[in-house]
Amino acid sequence: MVFLSQNEADTEALGARLAAALPAGGVVIALYGELGAGKTAFVRGLARGLGVKGTVVSPTFTIVNEYPGQRELFHFDMYRLGGADELFDIGWEDYLAREGVCAVEWSENVPGAFDGTEIRVTIGKEGENARRITVEGVELC
Question: Angle of helix 8-21 relative to helix 39-49, nearest 10 degrees?
């Protein structure tokens, strides 16, 4: 499904819609898009939809931020990782076993880390504020 976001608020709202459509159990959301595309804004909306309270920020320097909510959210940033081996070294499988929602920015940096069942979100710039957001692997209402 392809959506056109006119601004950051639209991108966050789409993230919240995705939260409402997630299947039960552990879920991996692989996020793709260039620097400044809006991946963290999308995750902020996802977090709101999952009942997370507080501020959601990019985990660029910490690699992962954990947020409690109606479902746990694990927000990963793979920008600084050199490959899937480094992701597994930081305990990726332990996060998966916790049955929460794993939102992974810069998923292209960890090829082979996912099992093919992930939800894929690709965000492309369509101008200064507009974004084309493609969601694959789940139907949004």
Answer: 50
Q: Which fold has domain 2-136?
A: Rossmann fold (3.40.50)
Give the predicted TM-score (pTM) of the model: 0.92
- For the chain, the domains span 2-136
**Could you report the per-residue pLDDT of 85-138, keeping only the tens digit for each?**
888 888 889 999 999 999 999 999 888 888 888 999 999 999 889 999 999 999
User: Residue 22 CA to chain centroid, in angstroms?
Assistant: 12
Bridge-based pairing state of the strands 27-32 and 101-105 = parallel
User: How many angstroms separate the CA atoms of 86 and 106, rounded?
Assistant: 14
Phi and psi at 109, nearest 5°, equal -85, -5
**Which residues does 31 contact at the CB level (< 8 Å), separation at least 6?**
39, 42, 43, 103, 104, 105, 106, 107, 121, 122, 123
> Which candidate, 123, 113, 137, 134, places its Cα nearest to that of 41?
123
Nearest to 75 by CA among 83, 85, 54: 54
Q: Is 87 left (phi over 0), alpha (psi -120 to 50) or beta?
A: alpha
